[in-house]
TrEMBL record:
It comes from the Bacteria. This is WYL domain-containing protein. It comes from Cryobacterium algoritolerans. Residues 159-222 form the WYL domain. Residues 265-327 form the WCX domain.
Length: 347
């Protein structure tokens, strides 16, 4: 009986994919990626059904682009219109430092030292072997591709203990702070999957108190994640991750915000990449429709743009953004008042 493939974390798979796509000049086909890159090749069936693996690759492409990594699709001129032979790559020219950026000798020495630590501490044995496999495809991987460290989002502190508990079938306990609540509440959860969606890590699991499945943002977990002694469960396997992503995708599609952005502003440039703008020629404004999974997270983001953004709908999002802006205004007003009173008291 063949050994069960070892579990590969999402971050390891994304790192290996980025590494492979940087290492190639001509790009890799989907079949080459799925059959050789760490995190895909373990589940790749030669001549078999790889539909679920292909869907995983499509989601990974979106995650990489959301993280600011320039992934290109190259269509062979002789096979125009054929998706089967499309090639994917990350052009080094778009992922290098600008030409006008330079470093002193001391700075270069420190950077080289940091790169050495990165190479030895972050690249697994499987990823090292992946470079050798790329050579068999005609990819020249002798370049110092590790100098292009991928800017993957740093994982939350709860990621590792949740992953370990999930692998071992252990129920965990943690403090969870929901938006609008003054104090966190302790939750007991059987973790079924930890997934990356829209650039954020989510925990999908069974809430023991609610007796049902729930999705938690890892960024809202407060304090340490601890295992509950003597309480175990049977992990649901890879299918639970697919279920979690499907639910998040459904929620993302169901939630739609309509906002107006100031033309030419930072908000217009950044937000228009996520949804096509619909120009309003009468007012000289741009209206954007944005899908979202979490109203409070979107409110935090939009409030950061200040007067560059006006929320048109839904009303709950508009109220949430106004509340954040009002809080900032009041905080600055109070600080200014205190400073003025202190200054007058010293004169």
């Amino acid at each position: 009986m063949p050994d069960k493939p070892s579990r590969v974390s999402v971050e390891e798979r994304l790192f290996s994919l980025v590494l492979a796509l940087i290492a190639t000049e001509i790009g890799l086909t989907k079949a080459e990626i799925l059959s050789t890159v760490q995190g895909y090749r373990q589940r790749y069936a030669v001549g078999g059904d790889n539909a679920s693996l292909e869907r995983q690759f499509e989601r990974d492409k979106d995650d990489i682009r959301e993280l600011g990594i320039p992934l290109e699709t190259v269509e062979p001129p002789e096979e125009s219109g054929s998706n089967h032979h499309l090639r994917y790559r990350i052009p080094k020219g778009l992922y290098e430092l600008p030409a006008d950026v330079s470093f002193s000798a001391d700075e270069l020495m420190l950077l080289k030292l940091a790169a050495t630590v990165w190479r030895e501490g972050s690249l697994s044995g499987e990823s090292r072997r992946a470079l050798t496999k790329l050579n068999s495809l005609g990819v020249d991987s002798t370049d110092p591709v590790l100098g292009y460290s991928p800017t993957l989002r740093v994982r939350d502190a709860s990621f590792e203990p949740l992953s370990k508990a999930m692998d071992r079938g252990q129920v965990v306990s943690f403090q969870y702070l929901k938006p609008g609540e003054g104090m966190p509440r302790r939750r007991r959860v059987a973790p079924q999957a930890v997934v990356l969606h829209e650039g954020r890590w989510h925990l999908f699991g069974t809430d023991k108190e609610a007796e049902g499945t729930r999705t938690f943002l890892l960024s809202r977990i407060v304090g340490p994640v601890v295992t509950v002694p003597g309480v175990t469960f049977v992990p649901g396997g890879e299918g639970k991750g697919q279920e979690a992503l499907a639910e998040l995708d459904t929620l993302w599609r169901a939630n739609l915000a309509e906002i107006t952005v100031e033309p030419g502003s930072d908000a217009a440039v950044r937000l228009s990449k996520r949804q096509a703008a619909l120009p309003n020629h009468d007012q000289g404004e741009s209206i954007l429709a944005l899908h979202y999974t979490d109203l409070d997270l979107l409110a935090d983001e939009l409030a950061g743009y200040g007067p560059e953004v006006l929320v048109r709908s839904p009303a709950a999002l508009r109220t949430a953004v106004l509340a954040r802006l009002t809080q900032v205004r009041d905080a600055h007003t109070e600080a200014f008042t205190d400073h003025t009173a202190e200054k007058e008291g010293t004169e």
